[in-house]
Design goal:
This protein is mainly alpha-helical. It is 57% helix and 9% strand.
């Protein structure tokens, strides 16, 4: 979240990220953005379908979800990137590397003087 421009506009208004006076003043330190190739996402979701019981874990629906993500969510990512908030994590890698990259990104966001 936010997954589209309307969500982002509502998020900005609620969070009051422009630091206007008011009750809701929050500073967004960063947004973690996990990147993964389409091929790897399809592979992982197909694998998940074997145990999840989800009927929507099939290649056709997964590709549709990826298409919607690229159309609706990537513009939000670009805006957040322009704001200097995006920290990309390469999620195609093994769990230990993704975990450590995530941990380091959180440290960098929350305690920039220690990174």
């Amino acid at each position: 979240f936010p997954r589209n421009i309307d969500n982002l506009n509502g998020w900005d208004k609620f969070m009051n990220t422009k630091n206007d006076p008011g009750d809701n003043n929050y500073k967004i330190l960063s947004v973690l953005f996990f990147t993964c190739s389409e091929k790897e996402m399809i592979k992982r979701l197909n694998h998940r379908s074997k145990t999840s019981g989800r009927s929507d874990d099939n290649v056709k629906i997964i590709q549709k979800r990826i298409s919607i993500f690229n159309k609706e969510t990537m513009p939000v990512i670009k805006i957040l990137e322009e704001r200097g908030l995006i920290q990309s994590i390469q999620a195609d890698l093994n769990e230990e590397i993704v975990y450590e990259s995530t941990r380091q990104a959180v440290i960098k966001s929350c305690m920039p003087e220690q990174s």
